[in-house]
Design brief:
The chain is of the alpha/beta class. It has 12 helices and 7 strands. α4 runs parallel beside α8.
């Protein structure tokens, strides 16, 4: 069938289908039928395309199909030790029991302070006693976050860490809740000085309260370098020292206790710690954290971090 362009109207009246010459045998009903069939054809094609897209989305990517060898992840043994060993639980419980004994000794001595600057400046005898604790791996156990990263072959990122904090699902480090409650019961103020950022402050408060830690909203001191609350924690400890005598400092990283430990050289870090040993175990209490910390960032590369000679206690020195 041949249609001349002249037989088709180029402009239609409102709500009126274009008319074709009857001698061609094509009616307006025929046009509607053809349009309907074409629409059905398009829908079928779209349905096919949609099925293909859904199949592709449901198919695991190549990275997902390759199993992760979790045991070869350098974090595997340390995270498993924290999560599974009786030794870790016994160790942290023992440390907090020892910390309570030291607190009772320091509480009775008005000239006792765990803050080096406060101790050197003096005039703190009449101030109310306080204990300063770090948060992560000191009172809150974040090992599930690290376990997830191992399982998914992911590294730490600020985004994933923030998301984890906002879940408010960190557990308590064994012995921590009992210690903090006991210390507060003897009249001490509890301060949490953490390098968590301000944007997860409320989530951290919620997490601590859910686990039974006594915490006042203004006693959780988060990090914000722009507002003078730097990662070295000195400025935040100074805020506490204005009105309180710090009886104990407790953390899993030596930088929670004193300055000079953010050095990127392992040998220098160990030398600083050696000079500070007088306060360790009495006014400064350290908890184990084999998963991460300043020590990790200071390690030499590769096998250079391994000490093959026995009898060395300096660290970083062969």
């Amino acid at each position: 069938m041949r249609l001349s362009l002249g037989t088709i109207r180029t402009r239609t009246e409102s709500n009126v289908a274009p008319k074709f010459p009857l001698h061609l045998g094509v009616t307006s009903n025929d046009i509607q039928t053809i349009g309907f069939l074409f629409l059905v054809f398009l829908l079928k094609r779209m349905k096919l395309y949609l099925a293909i897209v859904m199949t592709l989305l449901a198919t695991p990517t190549l990275a997902q199909q390759i199993p992760v060898d979790v045991e070869n992840d350098p974090r595997y043994n340390s995270v498993c030790w924290v999560q599974n060993s009786a030794e870790y639980r016994a160790l942290t419980t023992q440390i907090y029991r020892m910390a309570f004994t030291q607190f009772c000794i320091g509480l009775k001595d008005p000239y006792w302070s765990a803050d080096e600057i406060q101790l050197s400046e003096g005039n703190f005898e009449q101030k109310k006693p306080a204990v300063i604790l770090d948060v992560d791996e000191t009172v809150l156990d974040n090992s599930p976050y690290n376990a997830r990263n191992i399982e998914l072959n992911l590294k730490y990122t600020t985004e994933s860490w923030t998301a984890w904090c906002q879940e408010e699902k960190a557990g308590p480090v064994p012995g921590a809740v009992e210690f903090v409650r006991a210390v507060e019961g003897l009249g001490a103020e509890i301060f949490y000085v953490t390098n968590r950022q301000d944007d997860v402050r409320q989530s951290t408060l919620n997490n601590l309260k859910k686990l039974g830690f006594p915490v006042k909203d203004n006693h959780l001191l988060t990090k914000n370098s722009k507002k003078g609350r730097g990662g070295d924690k000195l400025s935040r400890r100074a805020l506490v020292c204005k009105d309180h005598r710090v009886v104990l400092l407790i953390g899993d990283n030596l930088s929670d206790l004193f300055s000079g430990m953010e050095d990127s050289n392992t040998e220098q870090r160990n030398q600083v710690a050696k000079r500070k040993v007088r306060m360790l175990g009495s006014r400064w209490i350290v908890l184990p954290n084999p998963v991460y910390g300043s020590w990790e960032r200071a390690l030499p590369d590769g096998k250079e971090a391994l000490i093959t000679k026995s009898g060395s206690d300096s660290g970083g020195k062969k």
